[in-house]
Amino acid sequence: MQNVETSTDKRLEKVRKLLALAESPAATAQEAETFTAKAAELIAEYGIDEALLAATAPDENGIEKRVMVLHAPYARDKATLAYAVATALGVQGVVSPGRDAQGRKIDELHLFGQKGDMTRVDVLVTSLMMQAARDVNRAIIPPWEDKAAYRRSWWSGFTKTISTRLREAEAAARYSNESRFASAGTSSALVVRNRDRDVSAAVRDEFPRTQTRGRKLSGSGTGAGSAAGRKANLGGTAVNGGRRQIGASA
User: Fold this and answer.
1) In this predicted model, what pLDDT tens digit does every residue of 76-95 receive, in sequence order?
2) 236 inside domain
């Protein structure tokens, strides 16, 4: 057990270092993409170790809840990005809109997931929020277009691309490590199914009634956001009671 924990801790530290290198202004686009790919691979491998831990010692990787507060501007777009990262990594969430002590709009993203997956979400969301905020402000907006509409569509393109990349990395990691699951007397499909069942139950216990709806965006920044999402380093909905559950495509 200790060997697994030590190994994964070192792996996450390496992910953080790779993310920092890719975020550096000194890194070329090619270097940033290389650091990105390696970080995504290590994040997925960390998830495999944590999934096996959950399968063999469930009491050590139980379901946790955390609340992430997203501030304006573009609080909903930030919440959608955080949600997309979370769901790609096996964490589920519900967002509750509100206002802070100063009356400014915020979104509270209530996340539910296994301890190891929550750690992965924390590592990636922190970095991706910084990257997105930096890159969206650098984007060249056509002079005839509304800036807010363009940036909302930019965030959408960025989010969709990040979600796809993470899901692909997760699937590849499960496939290449299937023999490890078999050695533990299970399969990756069964482990994922059990994890999703437990996480969904935790969400229902606290938010028994939610509904999802789409979101229409009018800006033309989707392509630029997607391009930024491909280069990024990885290592809306109304709800009863004023809460919304949102998806990666919102």
Assistant:
1) 899 999 999 999 999 999 98
2) no
Give residue 54's domain range. 2-231
| Closest of 228, 37, 71, 221 to residue 134, by C-alpha | 228
Evaluate whether residue 249 is within a structural domain. no
Angle at 97 (CA atoms; ends 93, 100), nearest 5 degrees: 120
* CA separation for the pair 15, 38 (Å, rounded): 8
pLDDT digits (tens, 9 = 90+) for 94-113: 988 888 888 888 889 999 99
d(CA 213, CA 95): 13
pTM of the model: 0.77
Number of H helices, E strands in the chain: 8, 3
Query: Is 36 contained in some domain?
Result: yes
User: Residue 47 phi/psi, 5° resolution?
Assistant: -60, -35
Give the type of residue at 198.
D
Structural domain total, the chain = 1
Distance CA 166, CA 118 (A): 15
Calpha distance 221→8 (Å, rounded): 37
Residue 179 domain-assigned (yes or no): yes
